[in-house]
Each structure stands twice: as structure tokens, then as C-alpha cells.
Amino acid sequence: MRSALLLAVAVLALALPTSGSAAPPVNDDFANAASVESLPFADSTNLDGAGVELGEQHFCNFKTRSVWYRIDPALVGPVTIDLTGSSPGVVGTLYRHFGGGVGNLAAAGCIFGGSTAFSLQPGTYYVQVSDSGFAPASVELGIETIPPPPNDAFGAARSIDALPYSDVVQMLSSTVEAEEPLPGAPSFLGTAWWRLVAAESGPLLVGEANCCGRVHVYTGDALGSLQEVDGTRSFGRLIFSAEAGTTYLLQVGHSGSVCCGGLFGLSIGPAPSLSTAIMHSPFDPTAFDTIQLSAFVFDPAAFPVESVTWDFGDGGVGEGHSASHRYFADGDYVVTATARTIDGRTGISTRTISVRTHDVAITRFQVPQAALVGKTKSIVVDVLASRYDEVVTVRLERSVPGGFEHVGTLTQLVRARKQGVAFAFSYSFRPEDALTGKVTFRAIATIASGRDALPADNEAISFATKVG
């Protein structure tokens, strides 16, 4: 009995988490949070033996153990909190404290295993580092002040040596200089500067700063004498017209202290060309059709299209993304669509529309007035082509109860002339024709290589032939 009890205790001990045997970290509890009194700050610990307190929040992950750090209220301003060297699954949460115990905290953000920027306002902050596992987990915590960007000052503007160009800077600690222009509202809390000498003339596309940021372009040599360059903005982008040899100063400003974690980007390069295409319907128009045309315009810069104008190639013009036009004579017409964006860039597309008016008609349908079963008679269909030489197929059908049945098909060339071409069929009358006492024939003419512009006269039905 005693041996069995000892074995059960041993099995239970093996089933318990290994962290339960480790001593808890000294800063396991909120009340014993490690003090961060100056920056930079670094600490190494582990979560073995740590737990969670009653009322402890689970803001950034569902945690089973945590340690705490208290940031001195005197440490205000932009900082980064870094957990890069910690074990996978370790997450940090920044809280603002308003007095009282662990339940009186307001979450200010999460640190998911990397480095995250925050702007600390006057007051007390706590950092909770935690995970939701039982395996050994190390914590490598670093907190340091964010310095101003190297190009914070106008005189330290970063040079743009070639296009296209892109850059990202951390601007939480950026400043605003005296006499620095602050266009728009709200006013900038901080700025950074770039300098570009345009190598050639033409429109340049500037990708504006992320989130709360905005880009302005100036000419001039000093802060007090800068002149803003006119440009067009849309969807967080700016296009302005550059002149070769001119020096341009690009100012990135932000009006929000924690937008996008303080990272603000800038990109600049030649403004892209528009891509345009023309579609039309019907695809095989005739002189009797009103053609529907559509211009499809794509701008890689995502600026709105201000206008689309049309030149139909026959002296006619139009406006709008869609247009309609009729050509009264056959021919090949070069249609031009010119699209223009709100910043003045244009895209031109052309398309040749071939207008061909094909038309054939059945001009005579000759059938016998009467016939006997077993006798073969001639049935003649005359077809006229009015404009072009056409390869025409004539299908001959006979009436049966409920509709028509195929009899035969002939195909031949019909020259464009005033006299029709005869399609001569031979038909032997059948006993079933005599059952009804009569038979009616139908002829259908089709053009092999085109669409008939006037199809109403392509079909003819004969008078009834008496069958005895």
C-alpha cells in the first residue's frame, strides 16, 4: 500500500509543469515591478516560476505567467520598447497607471516580439512581459530614447541622388525649427527634410508620408524664403512639375505623435504614364450601326481621370468615358481617345475600326405550282449581293407538320452586281408530301465571311405546291 502511494505521488509530480518548481522572478507581481529609472534600460530574466495575479489583465495575449516593469514618471517622450532577444511567444504590453492596484491600468499598446515605438506622456507607465506557455522562456527587455532623425533640420536635408528614390525615417522625436513653413492644418509636430536637384524636366510623383504625415515641396535657399511648389494631391500622393537643374526641398511633416509607430515614408520618381484602351460594339460594324465606344483608363499613380475626348477619324468628336458614333460610309477609321488626369498627364489610345456593310437578298424564289409523288422538279433561288462579292450559302427546307425540315444546301460566289445569281435545287416529291396535299419551301441565305447588315430579306417562303 505504501509503495503504491509513493508511485502515485511520483507520477503526479512528473505531470506538474516544470515551472512550478522554479522560484518566481522578483518582479513577478505588479507591486514588485522592476524600476526603470533611466534610459537606456536593459534587463534579462525568465518567466520560469512566474504566475498571474487576481485581476491581472490579458490585453495582448492570454497569459499564464508575467513579470512587471515600472517606468519612472520623469521619463517622458518617444521611446522604443524592444523584446527582440526574448523567447518566441513572449509578448509585452504597455499600460498607463492611474493609481491603485493591478486592476487600474489602461492599455497603451503591444510589443509582439520586436521593437515598438511609443510616446510617453507625463505619468506612470508599466510594462508587462508575459507568455501563455509552460516551457522555459527568457525575457530580454530593452527600453531606450528615440533620437531625432538625421535629417530633422533643414540644413541637414538628406540628398536624393537618383530617381526613383524611397526612404523611411523614425520621426517621433523630430522637431520644428523657427521660421519653418507649417502649411495646412493641423500644424506639424515635427518634420524631416530631403533635397533634390532635378536632372530633367517633367512631372514627378511623390508618395506622401504614412498615416498622419504629409509632404510639401519648396524652392529656395533658406527657411525664411522658401516658396511652395504648386502640385496636385490625390490618395496620399502629390504630383508636381519639375524643371531640370532646379533644387527642390521636400518637407515631410507629421501631426500625430504615434501614427504608424512614428515611421514615416517618402518616395519620389517620374510620374507614370496612363494606360488606355478602346473597346467598341458591335465588333463588325456596318454603315447602319450606331457604334458604342468605351475608353478604359488605368493610372498607376491612382489619380482621378478628369476628361476623355474622342476623335472618331471621320471629322466627328466626342467626350466622356463612353461615346456613340455612326459611320455612314464603309472604310477604315482610326479612332483616338485622349484621357487626361486632374494633374494634367495624358494618355492616348488609338484603334482602327473597319466598317463593312455586307448585304445579300433573295430576289426570286421559283417553285412548281403542282407536282406528283416521285417526280423531280427544279427549285431556284436567286440571290443578289449589293456591295461586295460574297460567298453565299443557301439552305433549302420543306414544310412538315410542326415546322420545316432540311432539304439541301448550296454554296457559291455571288458577285456584286445588279443581276442575281441562281441557286438551282432539284427536289423529288415524297409520299408524305401527298398526305397533306401540299408542301411549302423555305430558303435562307447567309454570308460566309461577314454579318448581313439587312437580314430581313435573307429569308423567303414560297407559295404552297400542290402534291397529288
Would you kindly provide a written description of the structure presented here, covering whatever features stand out?
With 468 residues, the chain is mostly beta strands. It folds into 4 domains: 14-145, Jelly Rolls; 154-270, Jelly Rolls (Sandwich), CATH 2.60.120; 275-355, Sandwich (Immunoglobulin-like); 360-467, Immunoglobulins (Immunoglobulin-like, Sandwich), CATH 2.60.40.10. The chain contains 2 helices and 36 strands. The strands form 9 sheets. The chain has a 5-stranded mixed beta sheet with strand order 1-3-8-5-6, with no helix packed on it. The N and C termini lie far apart (118 Å). The model is unreliable at 1-20 (pLDDT under 50).
Q: Provide a count of the helices.
A: 2
Shape: elongated
Return the CATH topology of the largest domain. Answer: Jelly Rolls
Total count of domains: 4
Structural class by secondary-structure content: mainly beta
N-to-C CA distance: 118 Å
Which helices and strands appear, and what pairs or packs with what?
Elements: H1 2-15, E1 34-36, E2 41-46, E3 65-71, E4 77-82, E5 91-97, E6 105-111, E7 115-120, E8 124-131, E9 138-145, E10 158-160, E11 165-170, E12 190-197, E13 202-207, E14 213-219, E15 227-228, E16 232-234, E17 237-242, E18 247-254, E19 263-270, E20 275-281, E21 290-298, E22 305-311, E23 317-319, E24 322-326, E25 331-341, E26 346-355, E27 360-366, E28 370-371, E29 376-385, E30 390-400, E31 403-414, E32 421-428, H2 431-436, E33 438-439, E34 441-447, E35 459-461, E36 465-467
Parallel strand pairs: 1-3, 10-12, 28-36
Antiparallel strand pairs: 2-9, 3-8, 4-7, 4-9, 5-6, 5-8, 11-19, 12-18, 13-17, 13-19, 14-15, 14-18, 16-17, 20-21, 21-24, 22-23, 22-25, 25-26, 27-29, 29-32, 30-31, 30-34, 33-36, 34-35
